Amino acid sequence: MPLMTDVSRLSDRVLMGPGPSNPYPEVVLAMGRPMLGHLDPEFIALLDETNGRLREVFRTTNSLTFPISATGSAGMEAAFVNVIRPGDVAVVGVNGVFGERMCDVAGRCGAEVVRVEADWGQPIDPQALLDAHPSPAVIAIVHAETSTGVRNDVACLGTAKRDALLVVDCVTSLAGIPVEIDGWGVDLAYSGTQKCLGAPPGLAPFTASERAVERIVPRPQSWYLDLNMIAAYVTGGGARAYHHTAPISMIFALHAALGAVLDEGLEAAWARHRECGEALQAGLQALGFELFAAEGHRLPELTSVWVPLDRLPNGMDEAGARRWLLDCYGIEVGGGLGPVAGRVWRVGCMGHTARMRNVTLLLGALEELLGS
Ligand SMILES: Cc1ncc(COP(=O)(O)O)c(C=O)c1O
Q: Beta strand 165-169 with 138-142: parallel, antiparallel or unpaired?
């Protein structure tokens, strides 16, 4: 007899890692709706409404705004593969894993990548990004670097980008902190559903300006992520051309998540994330934790913190402490990546998880763990 997982015994976690976060209750309900065909007029109307809601949350009027049918990484690939021609210069800010990944993706698309680096935990200097090359095709930056908890400044880049397209990774920022696609002059941006949007992983909300659309290469290297082909389905008016089968239940989920955010009010959602993040960061410091990300550039929705290894009980290591939180309180927090693996935690407070009750729960559990 093969071993079978008893799914009825899977736990209900408090998801305070770098994502996924806990989805909003209305999102969970939406996922159980009866299936519709992907060309059903009712589904097309729901998809149109979802795209409209995305425009509100991205703060854009871009007509090419829709959820890509894959996770945030597909948003990153789509942003580069559609506009990079071999030999184009792409200036990329690198201060963590996801900036590094942008370089890899841009390089695979044939770009000559010019890296602008900052230490882990520090923000990218926007002027260094603008000065790195006289005529790049693309300037790219991660708004909220999930590997370090740092917010990179984007607002000042758009007015100084000259002829370049500005690409911004909003995976961990959208609906958690202010994002102003039109106001900041962003040309291509993508996000993920599993962070501050409060839905499960599976879609990459995406938006492209008219300038970006004009620069789409004739035949992108990726068939699946070819924006012109996808656009014929997602923005096709009455006549929708089949491209791939839309993940119906995930669109239901995103529609509900965006509804929850907009019902609350986008600015109220930002404020809730800010208040929870500030309370968490103050509480951690009161317990003697040292924050990792540079002051003034800390994300409220993703807190990075040095693990006080010498204060953990009975020789417990970093992974053991995370396991204790999971076993005793059902709380998931994330481990560090790259050079700070084993020494830093990443604590998310995003989407439906961004509630003061969860902050209090985690701080209480940590107080018990450290015996302070
Ligand atoms: C900033 C950032 N960019 C891109 C990604 C990739 O998204 P996904 O894991 O959904 O493919 C992540 C995932 O955590 C991220 O945090």
A: parallel
